[in-house]
Write a structure and sequence with these properties.
globular; 366 residues
Length: 366
């Protein structure tokens, strides 16, 4: 079978997010997986995933991020890592670190894995386990981090922060150093899927956000050349929207466990879009020619104020899913933008945050 692709005037995707499964031992109430989770019986087979990886390499993809759920719930993960390596893809494992240890990591390293991203819920074990919804999760994660470093793989820690763990941010940074991470991602909760369900439990105040931002700024200066710190602020406190996925259908393609292809985690929630599946279409057809991937690509779809905005090719109109969630229309300007006619909806959400956070609605299979 030829791998030659006739490329239209659209750049190929930089990265493929391979959501191998929605199975996960954790029950994080901010999980980016959809509220309706796919069952194991619906997942792509190893042969199907290997075909996707082969097509991705031919398409021009450089990186593959193995994610979930928990990708280590797949017994064929090492086989998929090896296939990615065979096709010249940089393989990154995004994991909770609760389903394995030294033996698994050594196998993954030998198969060609290049990097590990390990998520933490907090630096305080009790609170971390409470947020994760699994007793003993924090201890397993720290042991897994040690195994990653012993195997010689570079390690990134992902710290998802919010009003229920922000006070521990300085200690989180110290923990990243102690565990030998090269990079730390401090990412405020983004309000989609399960996090949208739990928004009132997570939204920080402006004062809490400002304090956290100052902590990160000081740490970046202090640890320059030692630890790289990425920082993602919560959209609701921003004045301008983020460049969601660096623009719809511009750099990233996400394959869900069932084979459905989407431009981002939450895109499936948008009405009126028929997202194709790798079971029915080639990756090249999906990326270049599908109506769903072309719907919000570029700037032609934009209305005012985006159409004449000087930032239209910087933030690409912001997040389509957030526009739908807040304003009921995916084609409107992201309400996070201060120029949006719907910006007051963000203020209403912030004003509605409870003084005492409500109990979590934990991620679970229906």
């Amino acid at each position: 079978m030829s791998t030659r692709i006739d490329r239209p005037a659209i750049d190929p995707p930089l990265a493929l997010l391979a959501e191998l499964t929605h199975r996960c031992p954790l029950r994080c109430p901010y999980c980016s997986n959809p509220v309706a989770l796919a069952r194991a019986s619906e997942e792509l087979s190893a042969a199907e995933w290997i075909g996707v990886l082969r097509e991705a390499a031919a398409l021009g993809v450089l990186q593959v991020h193995f994610s979930g759920g928990e990708p280590m719930a797949r017994r064929d993960l090492a086989q998929l890592i090896a296939a990615a390596s065979e096709h010249g893809l940089y393989g990154n494992l995004i994991t909770s670190g609760t389903l394995g240890g030294s033996a698994e990591i050594e196998v993954f390293a030998k198969a060609g894995l290049k990097h590990v991203q390990l998520s933490f819920q907090d630096v305080a074990p009790d609170n971390a386990d409470r947020i994760a919804g699994l007793a003993g999760a924090h201890g397993r994660k720290t042991a897994f981090a040690a195994a990653v470093r012993a195997a010689g793989l570079p390690l990134t820690l992902n710290m998802v922060v919010h009003r229920q763990n922000l006070r521990g941010l300085p200690d989180m940074i110290d923990m990243a150093l102690a565990l030998g991470a090269r990079r730390l991602e401090v990412a405020h909760v983004q309000y989609y899927a399960w996090a949208l369900v739990n928004r009132a439990a997570f939204l920080p105040s402006r004062a809490e956000l400002d304090e956290a931002t100052a902590v990160v700024k000081a740490a970046r200066e202090r640890l320059k050349g030692v630890l790289t710190i990425d920082y993602v602020i919560p959209d609701y406190h921003a004045r301008r929207p983020k460049s969601c996925m660096n623009g719809w259908g511009r750099q990233f393609i996400n394959i869900m466990p069932t084979g459905k292809a989407v431009p981002c985690h939450a895109a499936e929630t948008l009405p009126g879009l028929d997202f194709p599946s790798v079971r029915d279409s080639s990756l090249a057809d999906i990326w270049y020619r599908s109506a769903a991937f072309n719907r919000f690509r570029g700037t032609d779809w934009m209305a005012e104020p985006c159409r004449s905005c000087e930032r239209r090719e910087i933030d690409w109109g912001g997040c389509r899913c957030q526009a739908f969630q807040l304003a009921g229309d995916a084609s409107r300007t992201d309400p996070v933008c201060a120029l949006s006619p719907d910006h007051e909806l963000v203020g209403a959400a912030l004003a509605g945050a409870a003084a005492s956070p409500p109990a979590f609605v934990y991620r679970q299979y229906r």
